[in-house]
Amino acid sequence: MLLLLLGIVILHIAALVLLFVSTIVNAWTTGSTSSSDLWNNCSTTNGGYHCAPANTGEWIQAVQALMILSIIFSFISLFLFFCQLFTLQKGGRFFLTGVFQIFASLFVMSGAVIYTVMSPTWVHGSEAFGWAYIIAWVAFPLALISGLIYVILRKRE
Amino acid sequence: MLTILALASVILLGIVPQQSEGIVIYTGWERHALVGSDIRLSCSFFSWRWTSDDVTFSWSYRSDGARDAISIFHYTGGAPYVDNKGPFRDRLEFVGNPGRRDGSILLKNLDYGDNGTFTCDAKNPPDIVGRASSVRLLVFEKVPIQAGVITGSIIGAVLGLLLLIVVIYYFMRFLVARRVFNLSVSKHGKKGKGKEGSQQRQ
């Protein structure tokens, strides 16, 4: 039982860490001399490595908001899990925890989908999607599975 | 003791203006405006001296991409002189109040060609040593949304909704508990402890 619990918590924390890394690291699109993400467009010209703030469109701000919201919801879900672990009666389901984690996965999915749809404007011809973008897509099923496990899981003694 | 302190502070205040830092001119840093609109470029200064009658203000303009600046406005001897030959002829108006150290100008009917740097230089004789201050004008077709406004509003709206749902849930639970309590009171008649304001149903 303890092993199962540990496994679930590790899965949850893994999803959370992936969300963090994906939001923060500057690698959503990478080119030969430039990399950009939700916050900055950085390029290494012969002058050095400098970053300019990302263009202030509405959609990039929506992606920023969705990624941050998914992190917040995943955090709340982790906190609720520990709360419910000690207060739920026997046979009860971690319903609230699961709901928050599923919301977090939906938010990261929406963010990644918006980024993909807007990629013709944001990812120019010579560039390709970076690893932070891929991590965002990986975090989505991970968080979804984690949330579903919480919904199905019943508290045993 | 106190009188000595007062005297010392008055003397210091008297000495400092003699070694004044010069005149300090304030304009904005950057101004955004829509095509076709008017904009007021403000310029004021700080000087330890009283505002003299020979105070002067001058504005010059350097277009984006141009190498030098041209003079577009000058106030001296109590009279303003606006641009009557350059790019701002008939579009420039003096709206400042030199007596209150305000040398602002009004630009009317802006166009994309007005993008550039406007420099204000003020002199308050005998306080004439100072650095001119510049303000950049950016003319847009529509004003862009600032970075982070939409991000913050989406996050705030979702979290606010969450908070609202939690509050409503606990409030409903509270109400249901009250009603259940009231129902049981009316069913079983008198109860040991009655809640204040509970309604007795017949």
TrEMBL record, chain A:
Keyword Chloroplast belongs to the record: no
Transmembrane feature ranges: 62-82, 94-118, 130-153
InterPro entries the record matches: PMP-22/EMP/MP20-like, PMP22/EMP/MP20/Claudin, PMP22_EMP_MP20
Keywords: Membrane, Signal, Transmembrane, Transmembrane helix
Gene3D superfamilies to which the protein is assigned, alphabetical: 1.20.140.150
Location(s), subcellular: Membrane
GO cellular component, one term: plasma membrane
Any Pfam family: PMP22_Claudin
Bilayer topology term: Multi-pass membrane protein
Signal peptide range: 1-27
Entry's family note: Belongs to the PMP-22/EMP/MP20 family.
Protein name according to UniProt: Peripheral myelin protein 22
Organism: Hucho hucho
UniProtKB/TrEMBL annotation, chain B:
Gene3D superfamilies for this protein: Immunoglobulins
Residues making up the signal peptide according to the UniProt record: 1-22
Keyword Lipid metabolism carried by entry: no
Main location: membrane
One family name in Pfam for this protein: V-set
Residue spans crossing the bilayer: 145-171
Domain of life: Eukaryota
Membrane topology reported for the UniProt record: Single-pass type I membrane protein
Domain Ig-like: 17-138
UniProt-annotated location(s): Membrane
Cellular component GO terms, alphabetical: plasma membrane
Annotated keywords: Disulfide bond, Glycoprotein, Immunoglobulin domain, Membrane, Signal, Transmembrane, Transmembrane helix
Any one biological process term the GO annotation gives: myelination
InterPro entries: Ig-like_dom, Ig-like_dom_sf, Ig-like_fold, Ig_sub, Ig_V-set, Myelin_P0-rel
Protein family membership: Belongs to the myelin P0 protein family.
PANTHER family associated with the record: MYELIN P0 RELATED, MYELIN PROTEIN P0
The name this protein goes by in its record: Myelin protein zero
Organism this protein belongs to: Hucho hucho
